[in-house]
Amino acid sequence: MRKLLSANLTRLWKNKTFLLAILFVFLGSIGFSWLNYRTELRYADTVIYVENTLFNLFPVLGFVCGIFISLFLGTEFDENTIRNKIIVGHTRSEIYFANYLTCIAASLLLLTEMFLFSGTTGWILLGEFGMDLTQLLFLILCCILVTAVCSAIFVALTMNIHSKSGSVVVSMVMMLALTFAASYIYSRLAESPMTYSNVTITMDGVQYGDLIDNPAYVGGKARTIMEFLYDLLPTGQAAQINNMQFDHCLRWPGLSLLLLVLTTLLGFLPFRKRAIR
Description:
By secondary structure, this protein is mainly alpha-helical. Helix content is 73%, strand content 5%.
C-alpha cells in the first residue's frame, strides 16, 4: 500500500482540481472572515473575537472536498486505473484505503489552510481570542473529525459508483441533502414554546395578540431525537461550530467517530465485491 500512497500523493500535487480547491479555500477564508467582520461592525453592542471568523468557511468546506474527491477518484475509474492496479496485484483493500487515506489527508490539508488564513485574517482584524486554548483545541478536533467523516462519505460513494460524472452528481446531492436536513432540524428546534395569536400592523405601529402555545414547537422525546440527529449530522456540527452553539458539544467527537466507522464500512464492504469495469 505504500507504493499506492506514494503514487496518490504525487498525483495529488499535480491535480488541477486540488490546486483550485487550495485557491478557493485561500480566497474564501480571507473573504468570509472580512465579510463577517464588516457585518458585525453594524451592531455596535456586538463583541466579536478571532474565533468568530475562524470557522466561517467550515460549512462550505464539505462541498469543496466533495467536488475534489469525486473528480480525483472518479478519474481513476474513467481511465481504468483502478482495474490496472488490480491486474498488477494490488488488493482491493490496499486500493480502497490508499485512496481513503489520501483523500482524508488532502481534506485535512484544506482544513488546515482554512484555519491558517481565517485565523490570520481574524487576528489582524480583531487581535484577541475570547475562548481559552483548551476550548479552541477541542473545536479544532471536532472540525478534524467532521472533515474526516465528510471525506469518508465521498470516498465511499465514489469508490462504488465507478463514474466521475456520476460520483460528482451523487456527492453534491448527498451534501445538499445533509445541509437541508441540518437546516430543517435547526429551524424546528429554534421554534419558541409560545407565540402570538396574531400580529397586526396599524398606523400606531405593530400590535400583538395573546400569547398561545406554539404548535410548531418540538418538545419531549421528539426534541431529544432531533437534537441527537442535529449533533450526528456532520453538517449539523459544522453549522453549530460556525454559529458558536455548544450546548451538546461534548458528544460531538464520539458521534463523529461512530459515523466515521460506519461510513468506512459501508463504503469498503460493497467495494470488495463490486465488479470493476
